[in-house]
Give the backbone structure.
Amino acid sequence: MYPPTRAAFGFRLSMSRYEGLTFCLSSSRIRVRFLSQSCTIAVIDDDDALRESMKDMLESLGYDAIAFPSASEFLDLYSQCPIHCIISDVKMPGIDGLQLLDILNGKGARTPLIFMTAFRDQRLTTAAKQGGALGVLSKPIDSDQLVAMLESAVGDHSGGKETD
């Protein structure tokens, strides 16, 4: 894999996709991702609208995304399909996000996990980091922060070359 190169452009461009190439301009920089093998991201949130919009956004970025309304539904299918990263709400009915992290750690799972929450505090951030979570994003989600965390989480799994 080659190190990313960067080029700045003086215009803004939205997403476009053409046969394995994804072009994305963020903060006046264009990223080109050559997707020869897609990454699968699991989105877990009990809020239907947020879950589906997050899934749509991830797919527009070139990822495969699977949405789950609860941690228990995710756990039922977790071992049956390859998941490269998990994005989960913290506060959910039943198994919450931190409990999910504990369960995955107990299974020896090494899948990167990114939390999102509307109720962020220092105790949550500390518990998530100590449990091995990649990070905690506050709702509403900052898309640039999410993309940076995803690139950090799945950069080695994307199967492709990315340039800036």
Summary: The CA atoms of residues 35 and 51 lie 24 Å apart. Confidence is low (pLDDT under 50) at residues 1-36, 158-164. The longest strand covers residues 21-26.
